[in-house]
Amino acid sequence: MKTYQHLFFDLDHTLWDYDRNVQESLSELFLHYKLENLGVLSPQHFIDAFYAVNFKLWAAYDKGELQKEELRTTRFPRIFAHAGVADALIPEEFEIDFMHRTSTKPHLFPHTIEILDYLKPKYKLYVITNGFDESQAKKMNSSGLNDYFELVITSETTGHKKPDPRIFHYALEQAGASKENSLMIGDNPISDIKGAHGAGIDQVFFNPLGKSVDIIPTYTISHLRELEGIL
Ligand SMILES: [Mg+2]
User: Fold this and answer.
1) How many angstroms is it from 114 CA to the middle of ligand 1?
2) CA-to-CA distance for 99 and 25, rounded, in angstroms?
């Protein structure tokens, strides 16, 4: 077994519970803006519309087909259209309100803090994320993650998104780490696992829902506490 010294974590869906934080925010927005009066059937209907649209937009963003500003300005118009609401009825500042609520939600995956407390004295910890600087910083802050990590490397700062090996090379350089003594932990088979593999870094695939995937990661876990058996 290799001796790892540097651990690189993905943030969304790995430590920060994206689904819970987003769904809670969308449910609040449904009530706050009385979306049932605009024709949205229920909070769940709104959440379903969000997932149907947002996933495709992020996939386009990941491929470089869409820029950040375009993603932000077209997201909710498309989501509302998907939910059957006319453009003119969309509340102003909806995107800003959504971003603020979501990025200040504190929910983490079970055992995140316990495992970070376990790892922190033994390893140097970092985050590598494809999210945007400002929102990722707010998420780290509101969920109490900041003190655990030496560095947060975002695709926005780096100019390259996972799985591009350049973001991993940049991270290693910033950390003063080598690919041999580093380990990437993340939930995304492509961006985290294939990405790290392509950069020569061992990987832990965090797969809480037991999705079937066509990758062979160095390790696979379904709970974060299983890292104690590896590290
Ligand atoms: Mg993720």
Assistant:
1) 19
2) 9
Q: Is there a domain that residue 1 lies in?
A: no
What's the gap in Å between 73 CA and the centre of ligand 1? Answer: 23
- Can you give the pLDDT at residue 131? 84
Query: Which domain-ending residue is among 33, 68, 103?
Result: 103
Q: What CATH number is given to the structural domain containing 216?
A: 3.40.50.1000
Residue pLDDT, tens place only, 139-197: 999 999 999 999 999 999 999 999 999 999 999 999 999 999 999 999 999 999 999 99
Q: How many domains does the chain fold into?
A: 2
- pLDDT score for 59: 87
Cα(74) to ligand 1 centroid in Å equals 22
pLDDT-based confidence at residue 63 (cuts at 50, 70, 90):
confident
Name the phi and psi angles at 86, rounded to 5: -70, 145
- Residue 125 C-alpha to ligand 1 middle, in angstroms? 16
Plot region of 84 (φ>0 → left; ψ -120 to 50 → alpha; else → beta): left
Residue 35 domain boundaries: 18-103
What is the 178 CA–ligand 1 centroid distance (Å)? 23
Tell how far the Cα of 112 is from the centroid of ligand 1, in angstroms.
14
Give the CA distances from residue 142 to residues 10, 136, 137, 205, in Å, rounded to whole numbers and listed in that order.
17, 10, 9, 25
Q: How far is the CA of 89 from the centre of ligand 1 (A)?
A: 33
